Amino acid sequence: MDIESYAVKLHERAERFEAWTNVDLVGLVAIYIDCATAVAFVTNVSVDPALRRTGVASSLMMQAIDFAANAGCTIMELSVNEQNESAVASYNRLGFRRTRRQGLTISMQRSLGTSA
């Protein structure tokens, strides 16, 4: 993979969903939409450690899911380390299911346009 062209593609096509507390960014979800395949890829999920397990990530993910569905995507995919059990459980609650595994990385996906 050419990292430079990937970075340009993300810059041009990525959508960000952010959570702020006053002037501090406390949560971020970024997705990349591949219009040719109607698939949205979650490229980043980050939450301030002090605010983990408070629903910030789930709220941002729901915003991303709604955005991707409204943009015409039919599938959303992500990758996560299988040892990050809390993230895997959270993604399961959001309707994601395991599709592949490579080493410790599992790929998960969910259909869009249906409830979790």
Automatic annotation (TrEMBL):
Keyword line: Acyltransferase, Transferase
Classification via SUPFAM superfamilies: Acyl-CoA N-acyltransferases (Nat)
UniProt xrefs under InterPro entries: Acyl_CoA_acyltransferase (IPR016181), Bact_Acetyltransf (IPR050832), GNAT_dom (IPR000182)
Domain N-acetyltransferase stretches: 1-113
Source taxon at top rank: Bacteria
Name of this protein: GNAT family N-acetyltransferase
